[in-house]
Amino acid sequence: KQEVTQIPAALSVPEGENLVLNCSFTDSAIYNLQWFRQDPGKGLTSLLLIQSSQREQTSGRLNASLDKSSGRSTLYIAASQPGDSATYLCAESNAGGTSYGKLTFGQGTILTVHP
Amino acid sequence: EPEVTQTPSHQVTQMGQEVILRCVPISNHLYFYWYRQILGQKVEFLVSFYNNEISEKSEIFDDQFSVERPDGSNFTLKIRSTKLEDSAMYFCAGRRGTAKNIQYFGAGTRLSVL
């Protein structure tokens, strides 16, 4: 059974700080990894998707990396803003075998950026 | 920008009642999913659906659950006889043809079983 773990569980930083969120996974046959943002009581917004053949993806102030050999991914947020406050989830997909691309999620990191 | 639409946003029901949660996926998507998130817990996979049949399901998805795509647009999750522990946020998701593609999620339906 695949497991995804995120640390820290919660993070509070002042505005403007650069920060790193961590995600580790046990699936050695990972196909891709997706980072999501979840605002309280809302759905999941996809931020970045990294294929297993890639090492990183960038979108604006966000940069996600993937190290398949160590089973780790990081989400780097540059120059954080109060509007970045949300829960960040990582999820891995194993599309091999009988899997049809279901996602296995971590428990999330609750990020608070204070002015 | 196209989006996944879920209705209702909140459903309150009595234990033992049947509920149907509805989703309208993005039109060019081919793979569809239901996930749930019990308050304070991880998002969990329930079922995937492709080519008008279930392609994979989790151990949570027992005989009380069923899915349908009756008219080529709506994608529904039915819970036959709800239990208190079915209270959760239910998310519908979809993606295009290959597993390289992003899964897009709806805003969710909050199901409260009393």
Structure in words:
The complex is a heterodimer of chains A (115) and B (114). Chain A is an all-beta fold and 115 residues long. Helix content of chain A is 0%, strand content 56%. In chain A, the strands form 2 sheets. In chain A, strands 2, 4, 5, 9, 10 and 11 form a 6-stranded mixed β-sheet that branches. In chain A, strands 1-3-8-7-6 form a 5-stranded antiparallel β-sheet, with no helix packed on it. In chain A, β7 and β8 form a beta hairpin. Chain A is globular, with a radius of gyration of 14 Å. Helices cover 0% and strands 50% of the residues of chain B. The termini of chain B are far apart. With 114 residues, chain B is mainly beta. In chain B, strands 2, 4, 5, 6, 9, 10 and 11 form a 7-stranded mixed β-sheet that branches. Chain B has a 4-stranded antiparallel β-sheet with strand order 1-3-8-7, with no helix packed on it. The A-B interface holds A 31-32, 34, 36, 41-46, 49, 51, 89, 91, 93, 95, 98-108 and B 6, 31, 33, 35, 41-45, 48, 50, 55-56, 58, 91, 93, 95, 99-108, 110.
Q: What's the arrangement of secondary structure elements?
A:
The complex is a heterodimer of chains A (115) and B (114).
Chain A lengths: L3 E4 L2 E5 L4 E7 L6 E7 L5 E8 L4 E4 L2 E6 L4 E6 L8 E8 L9 E3 L3 E6 L1
Parallel strand pairs in A: 2-11
Antiparallel strand pairs in A: 1-3, 3-8, 4-5, 4-9, 6-7, 7-8, 9-10, 9-11
Chain B lengths: L4 E3 L2 E4 L5 E6 L6 E7 L5 E8 L2 E5 L7 E4 L6 E5 L8 E8 L8 E2 L3 E5 L1
Parallel strand pairs in B: 2-11
Antiparallel strand pairs in B: 1-3, 3-8, 4-5, 4-9, 5-6, 7-8, 9-10, 9-11
Count of individual beta strands of chain B: 11
The general outline of chain A is: globular
Main interface: chain pair and counts: A-B, 27 and 28 residues
Structural class designation of chain B: mainly beta
Overall number of strands of chain A: 11
Helical fraction of chain A: under 10%
Low-confidence stretches of chain B: none
Strand content of chain B: over 45%
Helical content of chain B (DSSP H or I, runs of 4+):
under 10%
Question: Radius of gyration of chain B over alpha carbons?
Answer: 13 Å
The description of the largest β-sheet of chain B is:
7 strands, mixed
Order of helices and strands of chain A: EEEEEEEEEEE
Poorly predicted ranges of chain A: none
Number of helices of chain A: 0
Order of helices and strands of chain B: EEEEEEEEEEE
- Rg of chain A over CA atoms, rounded to whole Å, is 14 Å
Estimated share of beta-strand residues of chain A: over 45%
